[in-house]
Each structure stands twice: as structure tokens, then as C-alpha cells.
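SAMPLE LOG
Freezer: B-3
Tube label: C17
Construct: single chain, 170 aa
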Amino acid sequence: MVPVSFPTPWQAQAAPSMLASHADRERAVDVLRAGYGEGRLEKPEFDRRVARAYAARTVGELALLVADLPSGPVPQQTAMGPVPGTFLPAPPRPTNGKAVGAVVCGGLTLITGGITAIPAIVLGHSARAEIRRTGEGGDGLAMTGLVLGWVSVVGWVLLMAALLLVVMAH
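STRUCTURE (predicted):
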């Protein structure tokens, strides 16, 4: 419930004859609704008070309708300890270093002319085995390094086979 700035009984006594506005009536009804929702009022009493609040002409009348109800949230003293670990988000898994090395070597195969393809394949297989064993992250990186490394190796094998066929054909 939002704290309500409604005249306390002593403020209403200072100016009980001040005319109530629509906003004053709605604030009083909000306090009544909160009291009803918290079980402080029975339904028939709540209905009577709401009807009287909408019919009230002065702030003093409204103050009498809500004088026995809290006008805002009641502060409660609670001992707040640390949040249990069950409710905290899981820490991120560390990324396997070999998986990062595999994707870097796989990405460099175009620049190095395929020289880093074999390290990409070795690191990729080694990283995937470690990831399965330790639960680290980076399986996608390892797989990307493997694919790039194997694509480079297969590309070089096909290129050598084509060159060999051309040489043998002449």
C-alpha cells in the first residue's frame, strides 16, 4: 500500500469544517480499502464507511471515518540476514581456455594458409573432453574451432588431390 497523506485527527480538529475535495474522499476510501483488505473491517462496516466517505462534506467527517485505521503501511521490524545461496543466481561457468585457443586457431586458418588447422582440431577435441569432464563453458567455441580446422584440412586435401590429378593427366 502506498503511504497516504491524509489529515490526522488533530489536523482535522484544527480545520474540521474545511470542505473535502474529491481527492480527499478517494484517499479516505483507499485507507478503508486497505483496512478491509487487511481484515480490520467487516464487509458491511466497510460498505457503510465507503458510502459515508463519498457523502462526506468536510475533512473532519473523513478523518472520523478512518481515525481507527492506520493511514499507511505499518513498519515491521524484521531481521534481514544475508540472502541464502539458494536464491542467488548461479555464478557463470568459466570458459575453457583450450576452447578459446581452438576457435582462434580455426579463425586464423585463412590467414596462415591452413597451418593452424591441426592445432585447432587438437585443441577442439581436447577442450570438448575437458568440458564434459569439468562442466566448464565454451563447448560452442571448441566446436567452431573443430569445424574450421576440419574444413581447412579437407580443403587442402581436395586441393592437393586436384593438383595431383592435373599433374598426372599431363
